[in-house]
Amino acid sequence: MESEIRVRIADDLLMFLPAARREPLRRVPWDGTSTLGHVVESLGVPLPEVGRLTVRGEPAGASVRPAAGDEVRVDAVPRPQPVPLEPGQEAPRFLLDVHLGTLARRMRLLGLDTAYHNDMDDPALVVQANAERRVLLTQDRGLLRRRALWFGAYVRGSRPDDQLRDLLDRFAPVLSPWTRCTACNGVLLPVDKQEIERDLEAGTRRSYDVYGRCADCGQVYWRGAHGDHLEKIVEEATRRVEAARTGTVRAEPAVSE
After folding, report:
1. How many Cβ atoms from other residues are within 10 Å of residue 88's Cβ?
2. 174/112 Cα distance (integer angstroms)
3. Which of the 8 DSSP states describes residue 213?
């Protein structure tokens, strides 16, 4: 009889398994040499999405080799998930892959330091994430399996609204709305109206007195330009982070397509 181990997968991780095999308890043929990390990834679950691992009820690392007949439990990462921060750093820095441009703009609206490129390949993304200690957000499972990546996370959901909710539930970051340029991620600084009024439309010039300008690209912002829709995004995000931090509402990840 072929040796096997039993692997119990947390419900939040079943989405990574092939649709026809999304049973929480899987019987996996055992070769006697593979590590827990290899077993989990062979089922389709990227290790950055894995939280606690146990073998026969005892905590175990991804490098442990289970024995034939063992039962392995694979939990999802905790929510909110801690991220190592540098001294003086209030919130994680992020880097988004090419498919998450709209999410990047919404994160910048909330004041999150969010790098984004629409032309960067996978190796370059890993290099930047590691060099700048940014959490790499992606929907590319292969990218999350790169061993060199220091910290990555899979973004659940196909719509930007769902993606943002998933990000806020997972990390509950400190928000600083209206402080970053949504176009380039630069910091917004106050600017005197007299310095920019020649570049303003007459209606804007008459209606608003408080302005900010991106320190990097020079784009000018004023609160009225954002509209009610962006105000609602900020308000909902603030409530969502508070709920995730206090545990008043269970943070449910968005369902992936």
Report:
1. 5
2. 8
3. E
Q: Does domain 4-76 have CATH number 3.10.20.30?
A: yes
Find residue 114's DSSP bridge partners: 94
DSSP state of 178: T
Q: Any residues with CB less than 8 A from the CB of 117 and at least 6 apart, and which?
A: 98, 125
Of the candidates 69, 12, 20, which has an alpha carbon nearest to the alpha carbon of residue 45?
Answer: 12
- How far apart CA 35 and CA 185 sit, in angstroms, is 40
CA distances from 160 to 82, 88, 115, 175 (A): 23, 30, 17, 18
Q: d(Cα 255, Cα 236) in Å, to the nearest integer?
A: 19
User: In tens digits, what is the pLDDT along the chain, a chain of 257 residues?
Assistant: 469 999 999 999 999 999 988 999 999 999 999 999 999 999 999 999 999 999 999 999 999 999 999 999 999 999 999 999 999 999 999 999 999 999 999 999 999 999 999 989 999 999 999 999 999 999 999 999 999 999 999 999 999 999 999 999 999 999 999 999 999 999 999 998 878 887 887 777 777 878 899 999 999 988 775 577 889 999 999 999 999 999 875 545 444 43
Q: What is the CA radius of gyration of the chain?
A: 22
pTM: 0.90
Give the DSSP per-residue string, 14-71: GGGS-GGG--SEEEEE--SS--HHHHHHHTT--GGGEEEEEETTEE--TT----TT-E
